[in-house]
């Protein structure tokens, strides 16, 4: 099969802004973790779609902390970019910020690495274009992605053995 042409990180960068609404929050007015997780998945998926221009599924999310609360009325800002593509999978970094629109104060509240897998029409994993890192920072994230992937796959293997009632089988999709 012909080698896919690489794409620079800048081609798939995303900035997404949401207003935190009462329906997104608990009774104290803090945005629910699940809502933030959903937005992380969306912002990450848009970057991965722009990079791969294909159907994708989310394979894993690591490592996710909620370091500061996001309050109703604040802006939720998500920035995402691909860090590296492997064979059929793409790692995307997503950073979450809260912004007070009255003062302009902005604070990072979470960061996560999300892995997406590209699928063909039959639902089988298919190759994705490589990422071309250009800046120093992009090159660092690209290099470090290899080690994150190694750990992620090892942890998934261990967790599936330990916590799944039955080991996940490859079929059916
Ligand atoms: C993700 C999925 C397609 C992987 O299937 P699989 O049978 O393990 O496929 P393969 O072994 O061929 O692996 C395909 C790719 O997935 C990656 N992958 C598999 N499990 C992974 C995990 N836990 N974390 C990160 N990547 C993973 C593999 O490393 C491989 O990447 P590579 O080709 O770049 O090396 C499959 O587990 C799936 O369909 N899961 C459900 C996805 C879903 O419904 N998500 C939520 C809604 S979008």
Heteromolecules bound: coenzyme A
Largest sheet: 5 strands, antiparallel
Please tell me the CATH architecture by its name: Roll
Question: Structural class given helices, strands, pairing?
Answer: alpha+beta
CATH topology: Thiol Ester Dehydrase, Chain A
What is the first-to-last residue Cα distance?
24 Å
Written as H for each helix and E for each strand, in order along the chain, the element string is EEHEEEEEH
Strand content: 25-35%
Helix content: 25-40%
Number of DSSP helical runs:
2
Calculate Rg over CA atoms. 17 Å
Name of the level-1 CATH class:
Alpha Beta
3D architecture notes:
By secondary structure, the protein is α+β, with helices and mostly antiparallel strands. The protein has a single domain, classed as Hotdog Thioesterase (Thiol Ester Dehydrase, Chain A), CATH 3.10.129.10. Helices cover 28% and strands 31% of the residues. It is built from 2 helices and 7 strands. The protein has helices spanning 33-52, 136-163; strands at residues 7-8, 14-19, 55-62, 75-85, 89-99, 106-119, 131-132. A 5-stranded antiparallel beta sheet has the order 2-4-5-6-3. The chain has a two-stranded parallel ribbon with strand order 1-7. The longest helix is centred in the last third of the chain and has 28 residues, at 136-163. The mean pLDDT is 96. The structure holds coenzyme A. The site of coenzyme A has 16 residues, from strand 3, strand 6 and helix 2.
């Amino acid at each position: 099969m012909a080698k896919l042409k690489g794409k620079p990180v800048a081609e798939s960068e995303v900035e997404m802004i949401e207003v935190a609404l009462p329906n997104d929050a608990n009774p104290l007015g803090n945005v629910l973790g699940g809502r933030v997780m959903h937005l992380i998945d969306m912002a990450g998926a848009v970057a991965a779609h722009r990079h791969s221009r294909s159907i994708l599924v989310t394979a894993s999310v690591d490592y996710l902390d909620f370091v500061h609360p996001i309050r109703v009325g604040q802006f939720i800002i998500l920035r995402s970019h691909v860090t590296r593509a492997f064979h059929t999978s793409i790692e995307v970094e997503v950073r979450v910020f809260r912004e007070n629109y009255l003062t302009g104060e902005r604070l990072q509240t979470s960061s996560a690495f999300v892995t997406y897998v590209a699928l063909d029409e039959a639902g089988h994993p298919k190759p994705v274009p490589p990422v071309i890192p250009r800046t120093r920072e992009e090159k660092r994230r690209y290099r470090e992605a290899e080690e994150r992937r190694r750990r992620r796959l090892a942890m998934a293997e261990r967790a599936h053995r330990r916590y799944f009632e039955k080991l996940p089988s490859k079929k059916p999709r």
